[in-house]
Amino acid sequence: MPGFQLNRRKFLTSAALGASTITLAGCDVLDSLNERDSTARNVVEKANMLTYRAQRLLGGGQTLAPEFTEADIRQSQHPNGVTAPPDADYKAMASAGFADFRLKVTGLVEKPFEMTRDNLLAMPSRTQITRHDCVEGWSCIAKWTGVPLAKVLDEAKPKLDARFVASIQARRAMPCEAKCPTSAPSRIPRAP
Known about the structure:
With about 190 residues, the chain is an alpha+beta fold. The chain has 6 helices and 6 strands.
């Protein structure tokens, strides 16, 4: 009778299956990440702080995305979702040329404000050619033009204890109580 043999492939397969089972068992724990006093949230926040420190150590505090040349652009960008939402509010705003659009900057800032589309377009913009890696598995090098977030933050003057920027899109507008942690947070760069 042959004995039990564990080769590298069987070990890796078993380890991967075991790890996926452990992570699935923890789904209920992840539901509590929106609660401020959650143990799981505290662990994730501490892991994030370690990751941010490692990134700064390896890449410097102000490292930006690598830039490319026009010759590096190989394909067009893919829009995610829809480019013209069927939402009645969006249609009304689009038909008015987005005259009612407001960028609201609130939270841990010295100077909360609202900005119209025209105000935003009047700010200094920047064009860069960078690589976009989508969470859906595709990537492309594309030319992007817009107002750097730093310019908007300079206007708002973030308080010293502000650490993240949460973006809430118009199509998913919702009160910022329990939903903000699931928005796309960006780290606020601080001078060393």
